[in-house]
Amino acid sequence: MEYRVLGRSGVKIAPLGLGTGNFADPTPEDEAGRIINRAIDAGINLIDTGNSYSDGESERIIGRALAASKRRHEVILATKAFYKVGPGPNDEDLSRLHIIQACEDSLRRLQTDHIDLFQLHRPSPSIHPEETLGALTDLAQQGKVRYIGSSVHPSWKIMEAIMVSELKGYARIVSEQPPYNLLDRRIENEIVPMCQAYDLGMITWSPLAQGVLAGRYASATDMPVDSRGAIRGGIYSERITPQGIAIGNKLVSLAKAHGIPPAQLATLWVKDQPGITAPLLGPRTLEQLEHLLPVLDMTLSDELAQACDDLVPPGSAVANFFNSAVWMKERVS
Fold this sequence. Notes:
Elements: E1 4-5, E2 12-13, E3 17-19, H1 29-41, E4 46-48, H2 57-69, E5 76-81, H3 96-110, E6 115-120, H4 129-141, E7 145-151, H5 155-168, E8 173-177, H6 191-197, E9 201-204, H7 228-232, H8 234-238, H9 242-257, H10 262-271, E10 278-281, H11 286-292, H12 302-311
Helix pairs in contact: 1-2, 2-3, 3-4, 9-10, 9-12
């Protein structure tokens, strides 16, 4: 397996990462532990979580699993902060006060003395980047954070952060983490070129489009009872569209015609797109993880790449996976 360098950091990560948004909701702790250990055994070395996932329980599960297996040193541990995690007025956003407290809380839950990649979960609508980057720089100088990144930021906010870091000598963002799959390719218009021009890594999420690209849904109104769209509703169900399901069915047929499981093709497509460092797998079960591990050693053919472009043209979208970002106005066909 060929490891990829995460932006300017020099850190090498596998071409697939492990996302843990399902841990504790619904994946039970024992199954999550098996997923973590199997991923590491397969060569996956990036584990991504967030302080708001299942009210911090995702971090606690990861911390306990890595402590029990004594494998903390084998992984690049990434987490995030921004969303509200308490009743107080400062228990959210990207102020210095909240960033430092969020880092300390994540360190405790993860049972570690440092976070390898600390990411800003969303851009702040009101707090100046000097405030945020200054706090992150202090945490880096204290050895509590190794690198910093952003998640679901517009390209201009990432460039603003880079500019402030250059002017002030602050820690510099090394990666961006946006949604990206065949149903929503809008990052190709500005975010991917910006990351390539300024040498930022790209860790992307939802390669299967919540299972739409694996043929999980037959209808946008009659969802499987155990699907994320049905269980969580809200923004998750909004991403399931008739147009997306139609494309998903076409991808399933394309994958079968080439002898590839649809979920593998959808993940492979993201993995081998220009500028992508690693898509995050988000398995609910160990079986789902096992099904996707072969993608680590697969390569997308030019024929399949063109066939996918024919389904959804570059830069366009038929479903809105940016619907948790207030800055992105919905523009889908």
